[in-house]
């Protein structure tokens, strides 16, 4: 299934126009995206991740009328997700330390550029295939390094190196596109 900005936005608009199948398909596609987003930011807290994914899906459903059809869907989605993360940590009484600032900055760059309709898939196509697959697996689909390594039949260090190099290259490209 496609998870491009264009496809997700089309499903959202179709859902807003009364197509329940499009709305259900959108929510299903959002689960791995949100898991990846939260896992990147909340290390080692799978229960927290699942709670935030569910809270965000509920918010997407109940607040879908607030979506501006003229704007990028993923920018709206990640804004909702960030608010849900803040709400979650206020509710459970803990704050998340920022331990991987580079990953946070990369996610912020992707979200900011979704407003300019830069498509993640287009960006990943510019990378060597293994780097793109490992970024997709660990950052977008939410797999752990061990799970991605096992699925690809490579070592965990190879996954980490591929992700690091790919993210570094993407950061340079995204920053160049912003100028």
TrEMBL record:
One of its GO terms (molecular function) is sigma factor activity. Residues 119-170 form the RNA polymerase sigma factor 70 region 4 type domain. One of its GO terms (biological process) is DNA-templated transcription initiation. It comes from the Bacteria. Keywords: DNA-binding, Sigma factor, Transcription, Transcription regulation. Gene3D superfamilies: 1.10.1740.10, Winged helix-like DNA-binding domain superfamily/Winged helix DNA-binding domain (1.10.10.10). This is Sigma-70 family RNA polymerase sigma factor.
């Amino acid at each position: 299934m496609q998870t491009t900005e264009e496809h997700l936005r089309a499903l959202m608009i179709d859902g807003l126009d009364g197509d329940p199948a499009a709305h259900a398909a959108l929510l299903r596609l959002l689960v791995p995206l949100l898991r990846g987003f939260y896992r990147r930011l909340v290390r080692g807290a799978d229960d927290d991740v699942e709670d935030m994914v569910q809270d965000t899906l509920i918010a997407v459903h109940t607040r879908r009328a607030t979506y501006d059809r003229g704007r990028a869907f993923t920018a709206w989605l990640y804004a909702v997700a960030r608010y849900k993360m803040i709400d979650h940590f206020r509710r459970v009484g803990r704050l998340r330390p920022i331990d991987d600032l580079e990953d946070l900055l990369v996610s912020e760059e992707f979200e900011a550029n979704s407003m300019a309709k830069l498509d993640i898939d287009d960006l990943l196509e510019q990378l060597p295939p293994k780097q793109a697959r490992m970024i997709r697996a660990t950052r977008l689909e939410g797999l752990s390094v061990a799970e991605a390594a096992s699925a690809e039949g490579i070592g965990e260090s190879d996954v980490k190196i591929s992700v690091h190099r790919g993210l570094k290259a993407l950061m340079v490209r995204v920053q160049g596109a912003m100028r």
